[in-house]
Structures are given as C-alpha cells and as structure tokens.
Design a protein that fits this description.
heterodimer; A: mainly alpha; two-stranded antiparallel ribbon; B: mainly alpha; 2 strands; globular
Chain lengths: 294, 329
C-alpha cells in the first residue's frame, strides 16, 4: 500500500515522528508564551532548561538509580527550582526595562549552562534507555506504533491541556491572565504579584524540563540539544503569535506534522520548512495565526 | 538670564570634549599605522579591526535605529562564503571578491529586512534569528560551501591584480584603510538627516509615523546598510584568515557581535570598536588555556553587562564626563 507514491509505513512513521516533534514544539512554545505574557521576557534559556531536564533524567538513572517515572516528577521539579532562583536573582531586576534585555540576559544564561555541560560531557550524547513498560511496539494493523512515541504524544497532550485548563478555567489562571493585562491593578487588589511572577517562571522552566525528560529516551542526551531546538520554537512562536494558549499548542503540533511530511517528500527542505512558513505567515498575517495585536 | 549663563558655560566644555575626542581618534589612527613596527602581530590586529567593522555595522542598527537583530551572522557568514568561493574557485581579485560579498550580504539583508520589519521589538529579534538559521542551513547544504569543512585555503591574491596581499603588512594597511573608511561612513550616515530620522524612530516610532515619515522604508534602508557593512567585515575575515566556515554563520556569531556592542556601549561611536577589541583579545588569550570555558566566560560577561553595566565602557565614560561638566556648570 502506498500514499502519494511513498510506502505507507514510511509515511505514517514520519507523520508520527512529526507529531512527536510537534509535541515538543507545543510544550516549549506554551512555556515561552506563558512566561512572556506575565514577565515580558522572551526566555532564550528555554532550550537550555529543556536540555537540563534531559540531563537530570540521565543523572538520576545513571548515578542514583532512580527510574524514569520518578524522573518525570523530580526532573521538572529540579529545573523549576533553578528557574525560581534565576527569576529571584536576575530576571527580577529587568522588569522595568526594555524586554530586549530579558532576551539578552537569558541568552547569556544559556551560553553559561551549555558551556558548563559541554565542558563536562563533551559534544557527544549520552543514551537513556526507554523505560521497560513502554518498550516495544504495537501492531495497529495498518502500521507498527512504537509505544514510547505514542506515550510522548499522549503525555504532552495531557500536559498541554492541563496547562490550558489551569490558565483559562481556574482562579489562579484568572489571576495570571489579569496580571498579563495589568499587573499594577492586580497588585492593588491585594494579590501577591511578585510571587505569581516567580511561580510562573518556575512553572515555565519546569515545563521545559518535563519536555527534556520526555525527550531523553528518544534522542541522544547532549549539551547542544536545546539550542538547536529553541530557534525553531521561536519561529513557531512567531507563526502562532503569543496571544493564545490553545494557539501555541495547535501551531506547535501542526508545524511538527508539516515538518514530518516535508521529510517524506522533500528531505532537503525539512530543516528550513518551519522558517519558510514563518516568512509566508508574516507576509499575510504579521501578528501570527492566533495573535491579537496588529 | 539663568539659561544663557548655563549655555555659555556649557559651550566651552562641549568643545573641550570634542577636541579631546578628536585628539584620541588621531592618536589611535597613528597607533594603528605604526602598530606593525611596534611588533604587534598584524593578523591579530586585522582580525580585531574586522570584528570592529562588524560591531559598528551592528551598532548602526541597534544603537542608532533601535532594532535588535539576532541574525547578523547571516550577513557576515554569507559574505565570507561568497568572497571565499569567488576567489578560490573563480580566481577573481580580492577587491572584486570583497565587493561581491558586500553586495551579496546587502541583498540577503534586503530580503530578511523586508520580512523582519513587519514586526517590532522582541518579535523582530526572533524573526531575524530564525531567518539567519535558515541561511545557516542553506549554506550547510549548498554545493559550493564545502559543507561541514567550509572553504579552506583561500588565497589572498593581489589587489587590482597589482599589489600582492600575501604579506601580512600589505594586507594590514588595506584593512586599516577599509576600517577607517567604514568608521567615517557610519559616522556620516548617523549625522546625516537620514540618521536623524533613524534616531527619531528609535526614540518614538509612532511620532515619526504621525509626522509623515515612511518609517518602514527608513528601517529597511538602515537594515540593508548594516547588513552590507557586516558583509564587508565577513569578506575581509575570509581574506585575512584564509577560510570561511559554518561558525561564521552560526547563531553564536550573532550573539558575539551583540556582546561586543553591548560591552563597548550601545549607541556610541567608539564603543563597538572597543567591545570588539575586548572580546577578541579575551578569546585570543583564553582559547588555549581554558578550552570551552570561553563560552561560559562570554555568557557571564553577557549576564553582568545586562544586570549592571548596560551603558557599556564608552557609555559609562560619556556619562561620567557629562556628570562632571554638569557639576562644573
């Protein structure tokens, strides 16, 4: 059986791979959007935090013998705590300045984090085994589905939807949205805004860390895994516009799938297709697909 | 009464500062001319001047127009490749190679600029970064760039087919001449009516629009000029070092030029030159001693600059001089 002249197993395989990548784009761009909304900081260090999450999982298993399922909680927690420290020590000083300084500061941070890890581990990767429960593949009749990849897509969808629910449907989320609109007014109503800001950055960092733990068994865990990804995620954010949570999720997944399909039909262009789409979107809808501002 | 006395007392100190600046520049130029005689390694000074041009070009955009490009490596690197390829594979003379690289970077700047100026502020930075990454992948796959190896062993050739540049000293004076020309050109651009409009766009874009200026055209022209000058720096770099590689077009190069400008002083004339000097010297001194800790050190300087030293070296000196002259007044 073939689809557009491509063996359908290869086609569906790339589609699934695209969906997996899209799941990472969605989780990372979601974190970027939430942080930008409240802090006005474009977090360049998001890629480095994602890398830290993967290394945390590797470290827990390799040095402490703590398995994947605990790493899924401990990894993001560790990255989140680091995020809180960064916010308290550094980012806090920049809120009254041009948002460009936040980008530059987090760029410097990612250089530091990546440089330290490259010195410790070199540029080569560490491998992390797929947890026993998710090894192997399921035959769906029309395709062989690797269990772990299916799990990544499922888990990230649950996390994305959970984040959406938290922000759009709960009281805490309402504070968050109010803070995005007008932080001074929210403070005047007696809400501890600095606390919310701190926790938001921590949560965004934890989200990046969680993506890193999820990614650890599929890719080689290496110091540069984040910096290559973050630039694509920036393009995803420009395409989607940072205005809407659901927009970030849909754009991330959609672009991952498009990238996967490009790898099937025209492999040479797969590394630039997201950027090409960004250019096209900017021509016709400069604010991004889900953006609000003109 | 009060205002007149203030302005008359401020005027002499202004001319004093201007005189001081002029004397400093002349002293630096004389120093640059005699540097090879003093035993300074010419290739190092050339590399420094080349990155100084790069940083000045970047500063034209960030300092005087208020646009943060995170993709200037695309112009620097693509020009480096174009020059290297033309000289190595087609045997053109160096001045043709440099001109072609500069023009090529200008054209890429026109395309990237036209897309990027559709958004402002933080989005502008992200778009330029993404577009530069696209250029990176395009050059990685292009047939003439030598992929992961890059272009190695690019000969320097002879200027206009007459003057051999194989000796470091000959090339050195060519680079000094080009640097001085670039520095004067940027100063001319900034002080022209066009440059004043750019400053207005930086200070208050809606105001500029309401006064009837087509800000997009001004921004685009500034972007193209900055890209072309960054390309000139990249072309020179190929000529000086004899190679063009992927690291010239990598995003970390865009980061480095930002750091040079920030460290020296955004929006000052001499800041980027000084910043380039500090960063290049630092890399030179540390490279064989601490290995990849250089990246960490650069990152730490970045963080410190943003947190506590946003005016940069030259900016702080200017602020100090201003405070002093105010106290006197």
């Amino acid at each position: 059986m073939e689809i557009f002249g491509i063996p359908h197993q290869a086609f569906l395989g790339q589609l699934l791979l695209g969906l997996v990548n899209g799941a990472f784009y969605a989780m990372l761009s979601l974190g970027l959007a939430v942080i930008f909304g409240l802090l006005g900081v474009v977090n360049f260090a998001h890629g480095a935090l994602y890398m830290l999450g993967a290394f945390a999982a590797w470290f827990l298993l390799e040095k402490l013998g703590i398995n994947y399922w605990f790493a899924l909680v401990l990894g993001p927690l560790a990255v989140g705590v680091l995020g809180v420290i960064v916010e308290r020590l550094l980012l806090k000083r920049l809120y009254k300045l041009d948002p460009l300084y936040g980008l530059l500061l987090t760029f410097g941070l990612s250089l530091i984090i990546e440089g330290v890890f490259r010195e410790l581990f070199g540029a080569s990767g560490q491998s992390y085994p797929v947890p026993e429960l998710l090894q192997g593949a399921t035959d769906l009749g029309f395709m062989i589905l690797p269990n772990y990849r299916a799990w990544v897509v499922f888990a990230s969808l649950v996390v994305c939807m959970g984040t959406w629910y938290l922000i759009e449907r709960t009281r805490l989320g309402a504070y968050l949205r109010a803070g995005t609109e007008n932080a001074a007014l929210l403070q005047a109503f007696g809400i501890n805004v600095p606390l919310i800001v701190m926790l938001t950055y921590g949560a965004g960092a934890a989200l990046a860390g969680l993506a890193g733990v999820l990614a650890a068994p599929i890719i080689q865990v290496n110091p540069l895994m984040g910096s290559n990804l973050i630039i694509v995620v920036f393009a995803v954010v420009v395409i989607g516009g940072m205005g809407s949570i659901m927009g970030s999720i849909l754009t991330g997944l959609g672009l991952g799938v498009i990238e996967g399909l490009t790898r099937v039909f025209y492999p040479e262009a797969s590394s630039i297709v997201v950027f090409v789409i960004m250019v096209i979107v900017l021509m016709f809808r400069p604010a991004g697909l889900f953006g609000k501002e003109a | 009464m009060n205002t007149t006395s203030l302005s008359t007392s401020a005027a002499p100190s202004m001319t004093q500062t201007a005189k001081l600046i002029r004397v400093t520049y002349i002293a630096l130029l004389v120093f640059a001319i005699v540097a090879p005689l003093l035993g300074l390694y010419p290739v190092f000074v050339m590399k420094l001047l080349c990155f100084a041009i790069f940083a000045c070009a970047f500063n034209l955009l960030l300092g005087f127009t208020g646009l943060l490009s995170f993709g200037h490596a695309a112009f620097f690197g693509s020009a480096a490749y174009v020059t290297g390829w033309l000289i190595k594979s087609h045997g053109v003379t160096p001045e043709v190679g440099i001109l072609a690289g500069t023009l090529g970077a200008g054209v890429i700047g026109l395309v990237i600029g036209a897309v990027a100026i559709r958004r402002q502020g933080i989005y502008f930075a992200m778009i330029t970064l993404a577009m530069a990454q696209m250029v990176f992948f395009a050059l990685l796959q292009a047939p003439f760039t030598g992929g992961e190896d890059g272009l190695q062993g690019v000969p320097r050739g002879a200027l206009f087919g007459l003057l051999s540049l194989e000796s470091d000293t000959a090339l050195y004076y060519v680079v000094v001449a080009i640097f001085v020309a670039c520095f004067l050109a940027i100063s001319r651009i900034v002080h022209s009516p066009f440059g004043q409009v750019l400053k207005m766009i930086r200070e208050n874009e809606p105001r500029a629009i309401s006064l009837g200026y087509r800000v997009d055209q001004y921004k685009l022209l500034a972007f193209v000029l900055s890209a072309a000058l960054a390309g000139l720096a990249g072309s020179l770099k190929t000529l000086i070092m004899g190679f063009a590689t992927l690291s010239d077009v990598h995003w970390s190069m865009s980061g480095e030029v930002i750091l040079m400008t920030l460290l020296g002083g955004v929006g000052t004339f001499f800041g980027p030159v000084l910043g380039a000097g500090i960063v290049i010297s630092l890399q030179n001194m540390l490279a064989d001693k601490v290995g990849s800790w250089v990246t960490v050190i650069i990152g730490v300087i970045f963080v410190l600059c943003v947190i506590a030293f946003r005016k940069g070296v030259v900016g702080e000196i200017q602020a100090y001089l201003e405070r002093r002259s105010n106290r006197k007044g």
